[in-house]
Amino acid sequence: MNPLLRVSLFRAHHSRALTAAAPQSSTALRTTSRIGRSAGKRHYSTSGSDSPKRQQTASGARDRAAVGVFTPKAAVIFVLTSVGLYFYFNYEKQKLQEQKKKELESRKWGKAAVGGPFTLTTHTGAPFTEKDLLGKWSLVYFGFTNCPDICPEELDKMTEVVIELDKSYGPIAQPVFISVDPARDPPPQVAIYLRDFHPRLVGLSGTYEQTRAVCKTYRVYFSTPKDATPDGDYLVDHSIYFYLMNPEGEFVEAFGKSSTVQDVVTRVQEEVAQWEKEKGKRT
């Protein structure tokens, strides 16, 4: 082959080789450049200059979460509220105690002056005074054995009341009948009269002076003449009540003819409950 032709062919081949290799080299160069820039960006974003700030922010968030809303202002409000509540409840407690004290005084001094010392004789002939009623609840009725209808009706009612109370408490109440007719109601007569009523009913009677004294003590109207005789012609008038007395001999309430058995039972139960609350016992 002609040498000149060989040189020309070599140069043409070499030129095509360079042309084919040039794009690859450029692509590699551009790729290398992007990688370098990317690495530079990553290096910049994770540089140590920003890390302390982020750590401080995270630490502050944790501190705020631990402290919550308990700021100095909140602490002052909490203390003032606590002190206010203490004084409020202490005031209410004292107020309640004063109210209870007044109620007790009212119960003690607000009652009528009913009841007191007396001396009479039972239907069995034994002496009987107000002290024999202490330590028990008592229902006291004033009447006379010749009473045609009112006295028997009231004593029947008293009997039913005692029966109902016995069901709830046992023998907690003592029924008492006091005659306002000393001339016609000696103990034997009273004993006969009581057979129709409650077996625990105690019948009491006495002389004219004793009867007048006990009626005055219980504020019962007494009209029997002083010179009355058993066969005399006279009328007896009296108050139509029976009285509830507590275990200390104090008057609680008077029940009139209009009071029903249930009225009396309910009232006695209320008094027994209150007594038990205050004294720790029923009698």
UniProtKB/TrEMBL annotation:
Q: Which residues form the signal peptide?
A: none
Asked whether the UniProt record includes rRNA processing among its keywords, one would answer no
Q: Which UniProt keywords apply?
A: Copper, Disulfide bond, Membrane, Metal-binding, Mitochondrion, Mitochondrion inner membrane, Transmembrane, Transmembrane helix
Q: Where in the cell is it found?
A: Mitochondrion inner membrane
Transmembrane segments annotated in the record for this chain: 74-91
The family annotation for this protein states:
Belongs to the SCO1/2 family.
Full protein name: Thioredoxin domain-containing protein
Which organism's genome codes for this protein? Phellinidium pouzarii
